[in-house]
Amino acid sequence: MSELAGKAIVIIGTLFNLFGCIGLIRLPDVYNRLQGATKCVTLGTCSILLGVLISSGVSPTGLKALAAILFIVITAPTAAHAD
């Protein structure tokens, strides 16, 4: 069951990343592109890593995914604000 839930969350995260990439192409100016890409890609990447965490459970891979989620959540707003 957790394998299926993990795959579903990975697919949702991939869709968010796709929407962020489309936002980079479609939005009119730099600030809109920055906001669209940052929010979608952060949520998408964290969702993919959460799916990996759910699929692998408490293992070295799962703990690395959790550490990467924390790192992205802390650094993505700062990086978006710095541009």
Structure description:
This protein has 83 residues and is mainly α. Helices cover 90% and strands 0% of the residues. The chain has three helices and no strands. Helix 1 runs antiparallel to helix 2 and helix 2 runs antiparallel to helix 3. The longest helix has 27 residues, at 30-56. It is flat and about 40 Å long. The mean pLDDT is 87.
List the helices and strands and how they pair.
Layout lengths: L1 H25 L3 H27 L3 H23 L1
Helix pairs in contact: 1-2, 2-3
Outline: flat
What order do the helices and strands follow? HHH
Portion of residues in helices?
A: over 70%
Q: How is the biggest beta sheet arranged? A: none
Average pLDDT: 87
Class inferred from helices and paired strands? mainly alpha
Number of helices: 3
Q: Report the count of strand segments.
A: 0
- Computed CA radius of gyration, to the nearest angstrom: 14 Å
- In whole angstroms, how far apart are the ends? 42 Å
In quaternary terms, these chains amount to single chain
pLDDT < 50 runs, ≥5 residues: none
- Strand content is under 5%
Give a quick precis of the structure.
This protein is mainly α and 83 residues long. It is built from 3 helices and no strands. The model has no long low-confidence stretch (mean pLDDT 87).
Write a concise keyword list for the protein shown above.
single chain, 83 residues, mainly alpha, 90% helix
